[in-house]
Every structure is written in C-alpha cells, then in structure tokens.
Amino acid sequence: MVSTLDVQPREDKEKAEFPGHPEYDNYDPKYEGLYGRRRGDNDPPRPEDQRHWENVMTELIDNYRPDYIYVDGGIGDGEREFKKPYFRQEFYNVLAHYYNSARQWGRGVVLTYKREFLDPNQAVEDFERSGQDSIRLSSKWQTDDKISVSGWCYVEDTEFWPVDYLFGALADIVSKNGIKSIKMLGSDEGVKWNQTDSGLKVISPQKAPCDYAYVLKIVPKGKLLFTK
Q: Which DSSP string corresponds to 81-97?
C-alpha cells in the first residue's frame, strides 16, 4: 500500500508532514504576547515582531538566567527569504546581553544557532540531524538528533534507531570537535536503553518534563582523547 505522502511533490509533502493546528495556543490571537503575531506565508516580519522577539528573549535571560539557549532556525528564515536583515540586529542585541549578563553571574553560558545565521566564533553552530564532513577545531559545533524514527516528539508505537547507529554517530561527531546531546532535560532521571533482539528498548523517566516533547542530551563519560 502506498500512502498519499509517498507520491506527493516535495513542497506538498512538506506541507502535509507539518500541518497547521488551529486548536493549538499559538494560533489563538490572545496568546500573541507569548508566541508573537502569526504572519502569512508571504508576509515579511514587521518591526514590532523583531522588537517583540528581543523583548521576550531579554525577559527570559533576566528572569531565569539560563545556562543554555537553543535558537531554532526559523529566526533566520525572514532574512533568507526576503533578502533583508530581519532579526539580525535584535539577535546581536540578545547575544550581547546574554554574554554580558553571564559575566555578571560569574559562569559560562551557551547559545546555539542554525542555518549559518551567525559566525561560528559568535555562538555554537547547530546542525539538525547532520554535521561536519571534516574536523573543525576552530570552533565548537553541535548536532541535535533524535532516537525515534518517526518524529521529534512522543509518537505511539514508534521505532527507535539501533544503538550502534546512535553511538556511531556520537563517535563521529565528537571526533570532529562537535557535541551531541543521553540525559533527559527537565528531569532528574536518566534515560535507560538497551539493544534487544527486537530492536532498541528505551525506558523514559517516570516523571515527564513536559506533555509534548523530550530533549535528549548525550554526554560522554570521562575525558575524550584526541590524537594528531
């Protein structure tokens, strides 16, 4: 049996895989203060959209003092699509405020970005389900990946990638000076997994950090040895 998605053109397939959900909070105008104003597919960002993003990020930094901020790739889509520096100055303002605040807090922090929106020496470059084809010692970079075959969030009856694939990817990334994020963020419990004859068995923490999605962070034990 061939599903509809298998025979659709690329652009239609992408739309079908990422449908809109008007029932979600981010579609409700009363939550624009949190999510920002929704724009049409062909509408460029407004100046107030850029200011709003900077204000929200600044509030996050000031009130919660995060160790790590993950900025997804969508923040740079406006600049690439409309060929104007949308969100660029606001991103620089947020980055400077975050680093200056961290110096006052007396600790190191990390901010990641995607799709070449910044220079690698300004923050940690993130590659979604990909990486580098060679060793990059000039700056740190990271890969964000998933253990589930079907999706990034909870999916019933999903399959998981084999252990040898996941740790093979980990070895490849770390050997090239990258970072691959296995701890459950937002939970004190770890993620237990083992390879069985029927596939990868994953035991998630009993207490879920949220209702919708998990983020896994893979941290190697001990010191990493590099040879020239």
A: HHSS-TTHHHHHHHHHH
HSE of 8 in the Cβ direction (CA atoms, 13 Å)? 11
- Could you give all domains of the chain from N- to C-terminal order, each with its CATH number? 60-217 (3.20.20.80)
Q: Alpha carbon of 202 to those of 19, 207, 224: distances in Å? A: 28, 15, 26
Q: Give the per-residue pLDDT at 88.
A: 96
Residue 184 dihedral angles phi and psi, to the nearest 5°: -85, 110
Confidence of residue 24 (pLDDT cuts 50, 70, 90): confident
Burial 138-162 (b: 16+ CB within 10 A, else e): eebbbbbbbbbeeeeeeeeeeebee
Dihedral of CA 52/54/55/56: which sign? positive
pLDDT band at 226 (very low <50, low <70, confident <90, very high): very low
Dig out the tokens for 218 from the structure. Answer: 């893979």
Distance CA 149, CA 196 (A): 17
**Parallel, antiparallel, or unpaired: how do β-strands 216-217 and 183-184 relate?**
antiparallel
